[in-house]
Q: What sequence folds into this?
C-alpha cells in the first residue's frame, strides 16, 4: 500500500508553502516523503519536487501555441486534461515502492475540484495504483472570519469532498498571520456550530433576506458533521505535527509499517551475551 495527500484549495491559500513545511517537518523527524508538483502554472516553489508536471506540459508552452489561442485559465485546464490523457507518464515518474508517501501540490483553479472531472480521474488512477488517498483542502483563514464567508468556505470544501469522494481533511491556513483578536475570533468559530455562528451575526437587509436559507444550510452541515476545519500555524512545529497526525490517521499511514527491531543482539558488532542494564 502507498499513500497520497492531494493538497488542494483556491489560489493563494498556501498549498506550495504547506508542501514545503510538511517536507521540512518530515526531514526533521527523519521521515521520507515525496512531493509532486501537479501545477503546470507554477513559477517557483521552495520544496524539492520528486516529480514536476511541467516536464510533461506547462501553461507557458500552451499559451505560446498560436493554434490554441488560450488564456491562463484555459491553458491550465488544457494542461490538466493533457495530464489525464497521459497518466502512464505520471505513474512511470512516481516509480513508487511499498509504503511510499507522496504529497501532490495541485493547481489552485477551484473548478478542477468542484465540477470538472479532471482531479477525479487522477484520484481514481491513484486508487488503481494501490494508493490510499486523502484530500487536504486548504482555505485561507482570512476569508472565513465572518459568518457568511465561513459558510461559503464550508460549502466550497463540501463541493470538493463530494466530487472527489475520498477522505478529506480541511485546513485553515495562515493562522500565523492573524492578529491576536482574529485568532480569538477564529477559536470561537471552531468551537461553535455553524448555526450558532450565523445566529450571532449582525442582522443586515441582505442577510435578513437570506437568513432562513443560510440557517437551513448550516443545519445540514451540523446535523451530518459534513465539514470540520483544522487550523494550521506553520510557525508552530506542534501544530504542523498534529495536522500531519490527523492526515496520517485518515489515510491509515503507519498501520502496516514493520516495527524496526532495535534489540542489542541484532546490532552488528555487539555481543548478544552482554546483559542489558
A:
Amino acid at each position: 500500500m502507498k499513500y497520497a495527500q492531494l493538497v488542494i484549495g483556491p489560489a493563494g491559500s498556501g498549498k506550495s508553502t504547506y508542501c514545503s513545511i510538511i517536507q521540512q517537518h518530515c526531514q526533521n523527524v527523519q521521515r521520507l516523503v515525496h512531493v509532486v508538483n501537479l501545477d503546470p502554472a507554477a513559477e517557483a516553489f521552495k520544496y524539492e519536487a520528486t516529480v514536476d508536471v511541467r516536464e510533461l506540459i506547462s501553461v507557458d508552452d500552451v499559451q505560446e501555441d498560436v493554434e490554441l489561442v488560450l488564456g491562463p485559465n484555459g491553458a491550465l485546464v488544457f494542461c490538466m486534461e493533457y495530464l489525464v490523457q497521459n497518466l502512464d507518464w505520471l505513474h512511470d515518474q512516481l516509480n513508487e515502492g511499498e509504503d511510499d508517501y507522496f504529497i501532490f501540490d495541485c493547481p489552485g483553479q477551484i473548478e478542477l475540484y468542484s465540477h470538472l472531472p479532471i482531479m477525479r480521474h487522477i484520484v481514481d488512477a491513484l486508487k488503481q495504483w494501490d494508493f490510499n488517498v486523502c484530500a487536504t483542502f486548504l482555505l485561507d483563514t482570512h476569508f472565513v472570519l465572518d459568518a457568511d464567508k465561513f459558510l461559503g468556505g464550508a460549502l466550497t470544501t463540501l463541493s470538493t469532498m463530494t466530487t472527489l469522494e475520498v477522505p478529506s481533511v480541511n485546513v485553515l491556513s495562515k493562522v500565523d498571520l492573524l492578529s491576536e483578536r482574529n485568532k480569538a475570533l477564529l477559536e470561537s468559530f471552531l468551537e461553535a456550530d455553524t448555526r450558532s455562528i450565523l445566529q450571532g451575526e449582525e442582522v443586515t437587509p441582505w442577510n435578513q433576506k437570506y437568513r432562513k436559507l443560510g440557517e437551513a444550510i448550516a443545519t445540514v452541515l451540523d446535523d451530518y458533521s459534513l465539514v470540520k476545519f483544522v487550523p494550521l500555524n506553520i510557525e508552530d512545529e506542534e501544530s504542523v505535527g498534529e495536522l500531519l497526525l490527523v492526515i496520517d490517521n485518515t489515510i491509515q499511514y503507519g498501520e502496516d509499517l514493520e516495527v524496526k527491531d532495535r534489540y542489542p543482539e541484532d546490532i552488528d558488532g555487539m555481543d548478544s551475551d552482554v546483559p542489558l542494564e
